[in-house]
Every structure is written in structure tokens, then in C-alpha cells.
Amino acid sequence: MALEDHRVVITAAGRDFGRTLALQFAGRGAEVHISARTLEAAERVREEIRAQGHEADRVHAYACDLTDPASVQEFAAAVAARADRIDVLVNNGSRYQHGTDLLSASDEDVADTLASGATGTVLATKAFLPLLLKSAEPDIVTMVSGCGETGHHRSDAHAAFYAAKSAQAGFTEILSRRLRDQGVRVISLYPPDFDNHDPLSESWEGAPRTAKDPLTAQSLVDCIFFAIGQPRDCFIKSFHFEQV
């Protein structure tokens, strides 16, 4: 799927799967607007993308702290100053918190986990919705987690992370219904733990992807490109994965 005509915003793209998404969208020709909590982290990924031959004026880096409403607004305003629309918003940002013991996390950790995953997703979607509505093919993609599924209990993530992911699930569920009449597709992914191979390494192409292997970032990227590549009468609401 070629994406030369797409403008894509990706939150928390400074490392891990956000970086993977930025590199993969850019690799398919999209104009990418990437954020990270620090500008330096976003700029590192921007330079990696440019080093792959992507046009300098089609990859942009921003600082955005998803726990800070003013920072989210500044991010959206900065993108709007460069683009009259966006076609895809990828809500990737969400702080992970480990620990099966509720008492193992500080109050500050709990608040930050909830704010980045739950509040940050709502604020980013709200801030970018006006730009999405100017697109002829707007899509909102949210990386939730298996932890956002009702009854899920297999992860060692902290309960605050479960709460944040459940909030994302509830938000995207109602948003899918309420934005359909405006042509906006809301696509959510609920992956279990997965292997995130470096897209710039040999392991990206050589990663094992059999039924006996863990889910890979490659397959998640394939799911996203499949969903946004469908005709506009096809609303794929979510991807759920077998837990192993």
C-alpha cells in the first residue's frame, strides 16, 4: 500500500513501537509528524527516517507530553501550521507500569500512567479531530492492548495500566459509533506482548512468524496498513489476538 498522499501523526514515536510505526509509514511514502515526550527523542527518529532517503520536508518532529493538556494543544497547533489536514492519527502513547501488587507503584506513577494512556489519548484525538475532518479518508488508530479487553488477566502489568487501557477501549468504542457519520474510521488494536524487531536491522525481515512464535511488530503494522487501505465503506473497528 503506497501512502504518498497521506499525512500521518504518531504520538510517542521516539522509541519502541512508535519508532517502528514512524519508520514504516515513512517507508511507504507518507508525510509523518512524530512526537515524543522530549524533542530530542523525536528528532533522533526524524533523522533516522531522513537517512533512509525520506524527503526532509516530509518528516517533522515535535515535543508532546500527553499528560499535559497545553502540550497536546501546542503539538496540534504546530502540525496545523504545517498541514491543512491529516489523514491518520495513531494514538501510540501510553506509559507502561509493571507490577501485580497495587501497592508497588507510587501515587505519581499511577497518575502518570492513567494520564498518558487515558487522558492523553482523549486529548490528542480531540485536538487533531478538526484536521482529520478535513481529510477525505480520515482514520484514527489506537494501540490499546490485550489489557484493555474485558476479563483479561494474563499480564503482569500494574492495575493502573489495566485501567488506562480499559479507558482507551471505552473511548474508542463510543467514538467509532459517533464519528462514523462523519466518515472517520476508528480502529483499535488489542495485542498481547509482542516482539518489536528493529526495522533498520536484519532481524526485521528475518523474524520468525510461525504459529509457534510470538506476535511480531511486523504483523501489527500489516494489520494497520490493511485496515486503512480498505475502501471507505469498510469500517474495521478492532483487531483482537489469540493470547498465548
UniProtKB/TrEMBL annotation:
Family the UniProt entry places it in: Belongs to the short-chain dehydrogenases/reductases (SDR) family.
InterPro entries: NAD(P)-bd_dom_sf, SDR_fam
Protein's name in the database: SDR family oxidoreductase
Pfam families for this protein: adh_short
Keywords: Oxidoreductase
CDD domains: SDR_c
